Amino acid sequence: MTEKYTKNEYIDIEQDYSKKAFIIPQDIKGLSDIYFLSLKLEDENNRLLSSNFYWLSTTYDTLAQYSGLEDLPTSDINATTKFTKNGENSTVTVALANPTDRLAFFINPKILKGIHGEELVPAYWDAKYFSLLPNETREISVRFANNDLQGTEPYLLLEGWNIDPVEIAISNNKNVTPSLEYGDVHLSDSIQKNKSFEIRIAVRNSAASGEALLKSRQFLSIDGVKQGFKRIALSPGEEKQLVWSGVKIKESGKHTIQVGNSEKIEIEVQE
Asked: Residue 199: which residues within 8 A CB-CB, separation 6 or more?
């Protein structure tokens, strides 16, 4: 998330016509194995007309290993909505902001029928599966038929590759995202240094009703250092067990283990 190259070009272009703006050089210095390219087209009043976002590799697609996208740190998203009724249809405008210094990758907005409800379809978005760079803002909108709400109030759900889900009541912009509840962590009775052991924990969606899945990355941390994560998707009231096998701790003594936002537990590692 450090800028290595930027270029702005002003062009005059006729309707229904294509024109080359500029060529991106191939010798940009300091690129990581996986890097990102953001392209934006704006009109003379700086209004966004089109945007494209690419994840690329210095080894090119034939040799690229994009598994590094799994390591993207978690990012947060702020959102406010504006609801407009127009006869038989409605429009929701969503102002989004990434307040962090991390990439918010592959954001997928949805309209839900009622709190934690099923996704409203059809819904006509002007953008889906987009990304926000650090401190970037964007406005998107969606149009749908009022009858398709079936008498419910619309809610906004934001999901993404590396963002925790956010659910917002469109009527008052209140955050109504259900929390996750954690059961007791189960470990081996005796943990030895450099010996594999297993960690189990139950995770539950606290929502009482509805049909929307709560999707999340649950990180395992040892002594505050993240060791990897499991992806989880829970319907309201659903509980699943997460299991980490083959966990090892190299040093004997007291250590702490935490899964997601569960309480930290202290363990003793024997020689």
From this structure: 185, 186, 187, 220, 243, 244, 247, 257, 259
